[in-house]
Please model this.
Amino acid sequence: MSVVALTPEALKERFEDARRTYKLNIGYAGLEALPDGIIQQVQKYNPHIMELELSSNNLVDLPDELAEFQYIRVLRLKYNQLKKLPSVMVHLQQLMVLELSGNQITKVDEFVAHLPHIKELDLSGNLLKEIPDAICEMPSIQVLQLENNRIEQLPENIGHLKSLIRLDVSTNNLRFLPASMGKLKKIQRIDCANNMLGRIPPSMGHLKTLKELNLRYNALDERYRAKVEEGLSRFLTFLREEEERERLEEIERLKPIGTQVGSYLEYRCKAEIGQVVKSETGQVVVDNRCWIRTGQTTTQVGKVLYAFGGTLVKNGTKTSDLFWISTDRMEWHNQVTKGEAPAARDGHCAIHDEENNRLVVFGGRNNDRKRLNDTHYLDLDTFTWHRPTTEAPPTPREHATAALWAGHMVVFGGHGSGARLNDLYILDLHTWHWSQPATSGTAPSPRQSVALCIGNGNQLFVHGGRNNFVLDDLFYLDLVTKTWFEVPTGGRAPPPRHCHLMAIHNEHAFCFGGYDELGAHTHSMYRLPVPYGENLTTSRPEWEEWESEMQYNKSRSTCLSEGYIYMIQLGSPTLGKVNEDEAEKGLVYWDVFKMAKLDVLKPKVLDEESLKPKNAKRLRIEHTITVASKMPKTFTTINPKEVKMMSHTEKFQHTFRQLYPHRRPLFLTPKNECGTAKFVCTTIRPTQMPYTELYELEGIINFVADFLHYEPLENPLHPPEYLASPMSVLGWQAGDCFDIAATLCSLLIGVGFDAYVVVGYGPRAIVVNDQTMMPFTGFENKKKSGNNGQNQTNNSKSGTEKPPKYQIKPRWVMESKFIKEQTEAALKKKEEEEKTILEQEAEKQKDLLDSMRDDDGEDENKGKHVHAWVMVAMGSRDVSQSLFVEPSTGQTFPLDKSPYEGVEFLWNHLNFWVCMQMPEPHSDSRADPKNISFNLADPSKWEFVLPENLPEAAFTLDVEADAKDGTPGTLRSIKNIPSTARQNPGSQKGTASPLRSTLNTPGGSTSRLPNQGSTPATRQDGERVGSAGSQTGEQPGGVIESSQIDVYVDVPPSWVPKLNIPRDVFDMRCPRGQKTTLYYKSQQEKFAYFGECSRWDGMMERVTMYKDEERMVVTEIREHFCRRKDNLRERKVYPMKETTIEYFDPGSSFGIKELLVIRGEKNVMDFYHTARLDGLIRREEYIGTKMIETFQDRDDRLVYRSVTYGKVEPGQEETQQAKSGRRKKRQEDVLPIRKMTEKFARNPEVDSEEDVAKRVFYLSEDQIRIEFHYGKDRVTNSGRVFHKDGHSHIVQVDPLAPRLQPSFLLEEYQRLLVAENDCMQSVRDSEWEVKEIARVRTNQEQNITLATPYYDIMQSKSEESDEEEEEKAEVQYDHLSPFLPPMIGDQVLNREQALEVREKALKALKERLIERANIIQARHDEETAALTKRQANYQRDRDQMTREEEEEYEQACEESLFRIHILEKRLKRHEEQALQKYFQLDQKLRSDPRLAVLLQPPRE
Model:
């Protein structure tokens, strides 16, 4: 277009066009500058110019007055002489199109970035060599034309132009393009022709909106040129492939070189200490070292491992930091996140939501020791935290475990407030709604820290965990049917563990790591086949130990994911270990990363020693030795008294070994659990427990047998190397025969029994605690103990009754010889039955012993199995017969009828005795308990370590009985032994023992002490002092001279602290709360009474009887319950007979005492008649035929009622329903009654002729029959029969009685009809009650509720107050929750909703305040009216009132005035506080973040 002279007329014409079109065209005029005053002239015509055309002039700049055109949207300055951008353009903020092509611009100023609305920028045809970064900060630019310049490089951040659609950089000097061009998400056209490009950034392969790419006339290499010619789509695909190739090459270049260690690759992890990163608040310096911690979650996402939260070992504080490490770079990063981060916590659970690429976190425990139930998720693309609004969340908990299933987060178990949990919650990750599905089947017990994983599509596997104990069971839940199944497994199963991992890979479950029962880290791995579609409950898969190739590490965190095992740890033997002191203080970070494929790992090759079952006691001992510093000081030290005793026992042992080399070494100084040798007598710690159950002999024996888990000796042919203290044994709830015997002996001696630990030999059945060949005798023992208690009670009662001093001669009573003979025959028969029972019991005892001994069979070690048991001597605590007690089972045996095969030695807390009654002098000789004497004071039979420490109630076999018939004699107390024998045991039976003689020789030592038991002591003046065993103060015999006692060895006190069993542990009753014992054709299960290990149904014992020896066919099940709210005490089930019997304690529903149900045949109910209004004792229902009820103590003297049913005939149904007075829905609900019978007890106040004994209502025959009681000395009774057709039949026994009148009979008949209706109504009520009882019992069994003992409640409250003392103060009432509308996920309230919520909350408070004021005012008015009335009555009656009535009136008035005064003050205070409460609520609502939208100005 040619240049046109700009005359005033032409200029005015253009001004007129600008007024009409808002466009001013001053182009193509050859102007070197805009004429003066032109801006003011334009404003007169149109001050809102939107487009200014200045092209094809010679302008070198623009005047500042141009800034007055604030509405310019388009500015064209093409083909001028501009060498830089005019500065006035920075004021043109509405500028959208800027054309500057064909100028001489060499540089673009930075202020171009301050033009926020620029959409098109044309800088083509200039002299630009570089483009400033400021252009990349223009958010709205869509078209950028830079062609025909001298540009050599584009800005690196050009990818920030998110709105760019077209880019033209053709005809420049570009040699490469920035990699950020791949971020131009909206770009459609790129022209790069006529440059010097050699390659294209591979990131551009992700430009999905690109439609045109011009790369002609460039220096592209052959590969790029060939791909360009194939078309745009193929070229972009090629670029993406190139990007992946370059990425992998970069990874390989930067990736640290791993060290192959077995199946694992080990990498050294790096961490930058002072890295500067950007955050929402600016630049921050972060420490990328991931310090070791506990309680964190480790989640593997692809090749990145995330570690969140946990408690730092170095300072014990919880954290909410997020660390991640990539398997490509092996560098730790402390990720700076955005959004609302979760509170610092540990014990939480986390999963990776693959669909949305986010990390979901739930629960845990914060720094305030408060358990949490909040849910957060982290967007892993933007690292932004969000807290969605969830509905119906689980209760606060820690140590729960979670897994991802089909877009849902599945959470199981955990530790809540005061209890562990076994509930299951599912979180929908789309709607953020929690749900708790109803499950069926055998659910796992409450537990925490389980291993959880999803396998086979819809199966949730749960393994191990811990409650009061560490568990090892396996369950799975079908997530479709919501049914739990317990998986019985075999093989080499994992030991109990918690905090471990489990994952499913290639239809196998891998279980790794965790903590064992002793709290130690374990690095063992196990594998279990779980084939898809196979029924795991019947296939019984077998565990197999897998070679994890792991060694112990101080701190390690592991993750199983997608067939790999990943772990981070502290150092390694290959890459170097960390400083132990720093690791102990937590001043180190995880610096080694290991990974391996699960498929590469192999089964563990076990040698013969490893295949043997691990001795649990040895593992406990090894663990205790490692923590010996935490044990009491006496466990690891030896005081001077113990040193002296150890020296004495060493000499005794040495001498014994020399004299009897064929004998077994004495068990004098075994090591305790800390590895310290102690004198065996000091291991016993007599203690009386504060429980009444542990005072009697039977109670203590049964408790120890149930409470402690029996473990066979590690070497059955030798005593154990370690003898643990009773304190540790009770803490472990486990031990071998020596440990349990010492513990039982401590408890028995503590309550006054004379008990000893006996060491000898036993049959294999006892040594291994195998009772499968012994019959179960629990029922007989209970019955026997109950009878004995009753007999003792009767005997005690009869013994206390004294006959009166004067008695009247009894009246002679005539007796029938026949009855007397019958009574004598019955007594004789009863005696014969009792004798037969005793013989049967003796035979059973013999069979029992024979079964124990015959069980050894062909055992080559028969008679060599070492065993320890307890002996309780007669005399103390009214023990009438000395007994052997088997501590593992609680069975007792007389000394001459025990199954034991030999005795070596015995001891208690006072002394140690060695049996010297071996039949033959060789190692296989055994002193059979049947043939030996237990006279512990006889040194020829028993050698004692401490001669004068004899027991208080030592005993011996009756020597005279032995001499007479050669049979074992009875035991008698040591007080019957001559005192001379007690003073000098060596004098008894002639000579002293060789061992004692040797020890008493010069150079030897003796341990004779003043008597601590029954041996008399000597005072300083030589006079004998009596003892418990003496009858008088003096005893015949010589006095022990001081010269006879060479050395005094004082028995050290027990090094074991006083024993203690906490109440909750005591009530647990069995190890882990459950104990199962197999007997011959029977099985006994015992359960904890209380606590977390108790059963949910309150069952404390279950005995199952079987028909066969394999225990497959059940014949009877007996279950005992406690703490049931329905008062169920016992249940007997006979499956083969389809019979169930239930026994209830008083207080049960309907007063039921016993309930017998024979399915489809009979129901029998016994009741506590005093708990019922009708006095019902028993109800027998023969289904469909008859029902019988018996009563007691009724006012109407009814004792019996029966009803006989008939078959339903056609047409009778409606009649029976009408008679019953009830409408039934089904025919079988109402049975036709054929006959009803009632019987009554004798009423002595009524004549027998009028006292009804029996009433029979024949409904089917329309007849009523009544019978009266027998009169005195009469053998017949009166009766009457009434027919409904008007006939009657009278039987009158007394011929002299007046004849009954028809009117009387008619009245009586009318009364009987009423009685018939009442009886029928009672029958129907009974029928309804039978059905109601069945319904209630079904409901009670489906919703079992247990009563919680007081100390359990207090313990829970104590735990809550101890662990969550801050929680109650922080948890406040949410004033908005009742008024908030339903919200999903991150949804927030809008302004209208917020206003509505605020108004509703304030209105509710106002209504409550007004209601409260009205209540107070009403009470005030009521008191005032009552006072006014009382005063009016007083004024009316004051002249007639007594002094007492006046005092009563004055007192009542004072009380009324006091109450009125209080109410007035309360009303006044309420009025003052009402406004304050209203104001406080308003302030809370203003500060509530959910109503923050109200503080923002409303939008127009």
